[in-house]
Automatic annotation (TrEMBL):
Segments forming domain Bacteriophage SP-beta YorD: 4-55
Transmembrane residue ranges: 110-127
InterPro entries listed in its UniProt record: Phage_SP-beta_YorD, XkdW-like_sf
Keywords of this entry: Membrane, Transmembrane, Transmembrane helix
Coiled coil feature spans: none
Pfam family, one: XkdW
Organism placement in taxonomy: Bacteria, Bacillati, Bacillota, Bacilli, Bacillales
Organism: Bacillus safensis
Protein name: Bacteriophage SP-beta YorD domain-containing protein
Amino acid sequence: MNKALAIKYLYPNAELGKDYSVRDDGEGQFIDKWSLEDPVPSDEVLEVAWNEYLAKNDEKPLSNVERQLLLLGEQLALEKIARQQSDRVNATLGQQLAEMRIEILKLKGGGLLMNLNFWVLALFFFINGPQLQWLNKRWRLRTVQLKI
């Protein structure tokens, strides 16, 4: 029995997905969502409606190929949702990575500024030569120690 078609037969103005939805979890179909004002039809009522639908329309139930196509459509929809979620996560991670990169550049920039100030002071001491000779000797000693 196809519960979605049976419900459509009972309620011709109802829209699948908006007013009701039917799912199949592998153990059989069940009504997943019901937004109509009427009470949810029982399985017996749906079975009678399904038989009336078949007699009236003289149609065969869904073939295995049609069922497989429906399942593939559902899987495709789930894959699309998963891809959208993955895209949102990637965008968030990209934004966080960009923020971290900016912070690192700020820290490096601060270090560069500190190094620049240090080199300006060192240049000042080297230029002023004799009056700051004791500092010059100390600076050379530190430079040698840093190079090792």
